[in-house]
Amino acid sequence: MSRPENDEVRLCLPARTECLSWVHLFVDRLADDHNFGEKKKNGLSVAVSEAFTNAIIHGSLGDESRIVEIVLRNTGEWIQIWITDHGAGPAELPPEMTWDNPDWRRENGRGLHLIRKLTDELELTETEGGGLTIKMGFFTGEGRPAHLPGIKIDSSTK
Amino acid sequence: MELQIESAGTFDVINVAGRLDLVGANTLKDEIRRRLQDRRILMILNLHKVDFINSSGLGALVSVLKDVRLANGRLVLCDLVPYVQEIFAITQLANVFEIFSTDQEARVSFTEQSATI
């Protein structure tokens, strides 16, 4: 997975739940800057919130000294966001859940499925040295692009 | 997130306001479990003022629904804003919860339930 080198915004936040409110402010501002409609703005907000929460709970395992990195790139047609933690790597889905058949009634394990439903592009990769990077893409135009880049799930991330 | 609780006879109406995320989820679960301990097992969650919900909030709702049903109680949702309705539709949880369009309809359902017992 390529990482953005130019024209990017980078945030490094402690893995704390209090930082969620900063993330929401950041994302809401981003959506407003791009004149996203309410539906798209909410989708962006939920997806980024899910990924950040995931990084706090599963990626940092309660260690608030760990850092979660958010990188944003605007290509014009796309908003791309990378959220990286430096924890134990991708968690396995609960055994009875699959990517194609999520059990929404479970109390846990639905965050990544929700992200998948709300993004136009999703890529999960293990971070070098441990941890997980979630790359999310949001088409800036109306509706969805004619050719979706699709979903790439690293084979080690069920 | 803020909770405002109104006792309406045999049932309670819990008005939820703000963000139902990781932080709000624990507040909601704690409050509902306290009410179950007090044997207040019939409740309406009015989500009209919930302006954000994510999987942590959904998880909390699923969790308290299970608790209420285990206690032989009933929990219903009402007055969901369009964005929250969409999240419930995406996650198919609209089929799991009893959801009423308005607070009034939810209250009537409890009143009718009492009348038939």
How are the elements arranged and paired?
The complex is a heterodimer of chains A (158) and B (117).
Chain A lengths: L7 E7 L5 H14 L4 H22 L7 E8 L3 E7 L26 H8 L2 E6 L5 E8 L10 E4 L5
Parallel strand pairs in A: 4-6
Antiparallel strand pairs in A: 1-2, 2-3, 3-5, 4-5
Helix pairs in contact in A: 1-2, 2-3
Chain B lengths: L1 E7 L2 E10 L1 H16 L4 E12 L1 H16 L3 E5 L3 H9 L7 E3 L2 H14 L1
Parallel strand pairs in B: 2-3, 3-4, 4-5
Antiparallel strand pairs in B: 1-2
Cross-sheet strand order for the largest sheet of chain B: 1-2-3-4-5
Q: What series of H and E elements makes up the topology of chain B?
A: EEHEHEHEH
Mean pLDDT of chain B comes to: 92
Number of helical segments with 4 or more residues of chain A: 3
Distance between the termini of chain B: 35 Å
User: How many beta-strand runs of chain B?
Assistant: 5
Low-confidence stretches of chain B: none
Describe the largest sheet of chain B.
5 strands, mixed
Distance between the termini of chain A: 18 Å
Structural class of chain A: alpha+beta
Number of E-type strands of chain A: 6
Question: Please, what is the average pLDDT of chain A?
Answer: 78
Continuous helix count of chain B: 4
Please estimate the helix content of chain A: 25-40%
What percent strand of chain A?
25-35%
| Cα shape of chain B | globular
Strand line-up across the major sheet of chain A: 1-2-3-5-4-6
Largest sheet of chain A: 6 strands, mixed
> From the structure provided, what is the oligomeric state, counting identical versus distinct chains?
heterodimer
Q: How many whole angstroms does the radius of gyration of chain A measure?
A: 15 Å
